[in-house]
């Protein structure tokens, strides 16, 4: 089927393909399971083995070391997951296999045995590796080349991620801390099962996306898969790999949320609110809540800026996102200073930090996902998405190492160092941004041209009406 006919046959809802919402809810439940487990993982590891809600009794350093290694492997597994999809299964089937592995992994994790703990983590690593890069690639495949709705589509998809993360931090976090850690892990399994079920039901809306391109009957796709990379494609790959450095730095700082900031909230923050102690895991829901509230606003701001001809390239957004997120750590510096003087820090420092982290994330993360689908050659589409998530994984490991260093350096030094480095690095990349963008050979220029040629279809992106 020709590309034009393929996109013409897609049904739309609120101005986007219906398939976007199928992937939205699949990813929402997958993130419910992942972030629910993440919200209580470190707390479970450091909880005393003899307490009313017994954990494993590990030290903070040991828990953060495992957390960093686990979250790194979760995302590094996206490389083989993307490669398997490109070479053998296609993205659609890979997402299905990943969902099955995740249901099994979270289910096993709910068993109170050490063999189940490590086996469950292993199955989750494999499941995320198969699902995460491929479902994101499928989102990009719903839009034709140059469609200005693509970035907003990724932001809508990203909101789905964070609805799942928001609900899980509250529900799984509360159940885990109050009723038992393994009950929380079991709830994560139920959430993933719901996501898998609706993905299967919605297959009719994903008919033309995520198929195995090696078996494609489209002559253009066959040719693209066989020919060597062109000079333009090689230049674009160079830009992608450089942008991945931004990704590592960003997530190395951002992922303090599940590690050091999680323990800080539990041990050094005054969490009393009107006579009730707020569960430490609930603070991780702030990031998701802010994304749900601010997501479409930030996306609309960038879309309007682009249509006015102002600087709004992906690299510009990513650098700005890193700088804003880095500035959020200055609030954690203030929190550490207050703890050093008063013996406890106020909750509002964490709230402000998560607010800045969220705005930075909205500028960088959904944009980076969309950027990869614009620059990556067809034959390496899922693999490059896998590399992106692997870089996220390396950032997670960096986050664990930085968190461990707090036992020797102290939170004040670690938080301040992260803030200064992120702001400085973001400014440095901004200085060379234009040179890097030349190597993309106008990959993002098509969006402006399409808008000029199709003003009705691509009207104000705030107007969510079917075309």
TrEMBL record:
Just give the chief location class: membrane
Membrane association type:
Multi-pass membrane protein
Gene Ontology terms, MF aspect: peptide transmembrane transporter activity
UniProt keyword annotation of tRNA-binding present? no
List the biased-composition ranges (Basic and acidic residues): 443-454
Question: What subcellular locations does the record give?
Answer: Cell membrane; Membrane
Q: Where are the transmembrane segments?
A: 67-85, 94-111, 117-135, 156-175, 181-201, 237-254, 282-303, 315-335, 347-369, 381-400, 412-432
Q: Which positions fall inside the Major facilitator superfamily (MFS) profile domain?
A: 19-437
Kindly state one GO CC term assigned in the UniProt record.
plasma membrane
Q: Which GO BP terms, alphabetically? A: oligopeptide transport
Keyword tags: Cell membrane, Membrane, Peptide transport, Protein transport, Transmembrane, Transmembrane helix, Transport
Give the region (Disordered) as residue ranges. Answer: 443-467
Keyword Cell membrane on this protein?
yes
Q: Which family does it belong to?
A: Belongs to the major facilitator superfamily. Proton-dependent oligopeptide transporter (POT/PTR) (TC 2.A.17) family.
Its recorded name reads MFS transporter
Q: Mind giving the lineage of the organism this protein is from?
A: Bacteria, Pseudomonadati, Bacteroidota, Flavobacteriia, Flavobacteriales
């Amino acid at each position: 089927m020709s590309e034009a006919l393929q996109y013409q046959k897609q049904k739309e809802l609120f101005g986007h393909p219906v398939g976007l919402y199928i992937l939205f809810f699949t990813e929402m439940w997958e993130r419910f399971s992942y972030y629910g487990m993440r919200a209580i993982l470190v707390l479970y590891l450091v909880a005393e083995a003899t307490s009313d809600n017994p954990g494993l009794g590990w030290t903070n350093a040991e828990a953060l070391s495992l957390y960093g290694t686990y979250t790194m492997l979760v995302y590094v597994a996206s490389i083989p997951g993307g490669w398997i999809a490109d070479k053998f299964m296609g993205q659609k089937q890979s997402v299905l296999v990943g969902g099955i592995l995740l249901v099994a992994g979270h289910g096993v994790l709910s068993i109170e045995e050490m063999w189940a703990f490590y086996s469950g983590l292993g199955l989750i690593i494999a499941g995320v590796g198969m699902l995460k890069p491929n479902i994101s690639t499928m989102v990009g495949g719903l839009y034709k080349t140059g469609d200005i709705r693509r970035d907003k589509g990724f932001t809508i998809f990203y909101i789905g991620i964070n609805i799942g993360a928001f609900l899980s931090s509250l529900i799984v976090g509360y159940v885990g801390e109050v009723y038992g850690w393994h009950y929380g892990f079991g709830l994560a399994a139920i959430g993933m099962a719901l996501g898998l079920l609706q993905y299967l039901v919605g297959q009719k809306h994903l008919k033309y996306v995520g198929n195995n391109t090696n078996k494609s009957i489209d002559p253009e796709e066959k040719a693209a898969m066989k020919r060597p990379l062109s000079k333009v494609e090689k230049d674009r790959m160079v830009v992608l790999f450089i942008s991945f450095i931004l990704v590592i730095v960003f997530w190395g700082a951002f992922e303090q949320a599940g590690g050091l900031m999680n323990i800080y909230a539990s041990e050094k923050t005054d969490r009393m609110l009107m006579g009730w102690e707020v569960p430490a895991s609930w603070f991780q829901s702030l990031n998701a809540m802010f994304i749900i509230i601010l997501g479409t606003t930030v996306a609309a701001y960038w879309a309007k800026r682009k249509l006015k001809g102002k600087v709004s390239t992906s690299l510009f957004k990513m650098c700005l996102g890193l700088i804003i997120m880095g500035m959020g750590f200055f609030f954690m510096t203030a929190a550490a200073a207050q703890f050093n003087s008063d013996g406890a820090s106020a909750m509002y420092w964490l709230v402000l930090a998560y607010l800045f982290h969220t705005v930075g994330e909205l500028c960088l993360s959904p944009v980076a996902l969309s950027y990869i689908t614009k620059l990556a050659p067809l034959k390496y589409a899922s693999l490059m998405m896998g590399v992106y998530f692997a870089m996220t994984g390396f950032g997670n490991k960096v986050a664990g190492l930085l968190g461990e260093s707090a036992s020797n350096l102290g939170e004040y030094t670690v938080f301040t160092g992260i803030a200064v480095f992120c702001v400085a690095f973001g400014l440095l990349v901004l200085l060379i941004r234009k040179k890097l963008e030349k190597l993309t050979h106008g990959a993002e220029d098509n969006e402006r041209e399409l808008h000029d040629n199709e003003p009705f279809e691509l009207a104000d992106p705030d107007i969510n009406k079917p075309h």
